[in-house]
Amino acid sequence: SIVYPRQIAMYLSRELTDHSLPKIGNEFGGRDHTTVMYANNKIQGLMTAQRDVYNQIQTLTNLIRQRNQ
Predict the structure, then answer these.
(1) How far, CA to CA in Å, does 53 sit from each of 15, 38, 56?
(2) Which of 15, 24, 52, 63 is buried deepest, with most CB atoms within 10 A?
(3) pLDDT on residue 69
(4) Cβ-based neighbour number of residue 35 at 10 Å
């Protein structure tokens, strides 16, 4: 039940930071860098296949960027 939100968080971490895959994985409880790669690829695929996922990611990205200004 927390896998999908964690995958989204990993995807956003990859897209919005310059952290390495191992660094991101470490921040998510010591996950391997391949887990981050998988999450990134999965979310990218879902964004392409499902408009609602694309819209959700865009909304989250905009909210994060607004808070960081």
Answers:
(1) 15, 17, 5
(2) 24
(3) 81
(4) 18
